[in-house]
Batch of 2 targets.
Target 1
Amino acid sequence: MTERVLLVGAYMLCFCQLNLIAKRLAQQIPSPIPTSGEIFRLLVTSPKFYLMGILYLSCAVLYMGSLRLMPLSTAGPLYLSLGAIATFFLGVFFFDESFSYIRLLGAGLCILGIAFLSAE
């Protein structure tokens, strides 16, 4: 159980950091939307882009470690739901995105769904 919690926690740290970096990098893309070549040049010249690659790889390795310890039918929804909840809170707290009790209820329902799917 402890190894599962550590894997999920480490994944969430990587996932949250990845989302923060990706959003900040996306905000650096000028408006109006440049050509795909210009976006590509902006990305490959940014160290953040390569850090994102390392974080993506880390998330994949941690997820695979979790699949070793829990069924896919539990791990898949767990990671997807926690990701949705985390991005909601990251958006609200770091990027001044809108907060509503309906959205908070949605996050709560995700947690409830995880609890039901994890029950044995």
Note: The mean pLDDT is 92.
Target 2
Amino acid sequence: MTPAGTRFDELLRPDRVGPRIAAATGVLAWTDFTAELIAGGKSNLTFTLTSTDGELILRRPPTGKLLPSAHDMAREARIQTGLTGTGVPVATILLTEPSGADLGVPYYVMEKVVGHVVRDTLPRGTPPPTPTSQHGHSEIVFSGVRVPAENLLGGVGDGFAIAQARLGPGRIHHAMRAIGMAERALALMVDRAKSRTAFGKLLSEQGVVQAHIANSRIEIDQARLQVLHCAWMIDDHGAKDARFEISAIKVIAPQVACTVIDRAIEIFGAARISDDVPLASFYAWARALRIVDGPDAVHRRTIAKGELRRTPPFVG
């Protein structure tokens, strides 16, 4: 470490370093500069050098023992030099002196640039990524658009019917994604339960957690088989004749996903609201699936109407 009270001119030797910087930058003003130690360094010393031309940064080792945790300055300089011009935001190194001829130790000088601090993001409210950002949906505004009659697809006013023809098979994809999210949430739940201890024993040994895991497996498999049956109906009878089965899986798959993901969230505790695990975004997307392509209530109405039409009255 550098002894307290050491003069900066002893550490930096402006009479030697100044001309070297002036030669490297082509700016004579650097023959005369002031220096300020940047606080917070753990071992190697970092100075802000100021002249009438602006500010630069100089890095050098301390005068005393170098801590084992100190960065290898020669490696720093090599990496920064190699990254210059690649688009990676690093300061450009203007001067390196590995021999120690000026200060008795190696040093290098680089540009002073604005730093960018990158931290893990804790989402507020509905966590990112949102369903629209995941799948690239956008709001499109048609202003002053005229469509020639010869470019019309189908008849006037038939757009909803065309959309429904696409949405029927598309809903089974939503259901499959929901099953996948539920399966992933269960895997995370099990992993957490087997590694987290509370009240003196693993979560996996707690009765309520075991019930969460068991119920999740039962419900996921029930929903998966219902989706498989719906897929068979579409393959064998077409989407129109499978409309009730499509509505059924559109209701049950996201509902099961929400339930299983919510159980996993409970088991993860506070970690559930961070991006360290995908549960928050899973839940936001699964809940959104209960609205997109028709909310649950609309699909339940479709199922009920079909059941009321095709189920004969009970005759005792």
Note: The domain at 161-308 is CATH 1.20.140.10 (Butyryl-CoA Dehydrogenase, subunit A; domain 3).
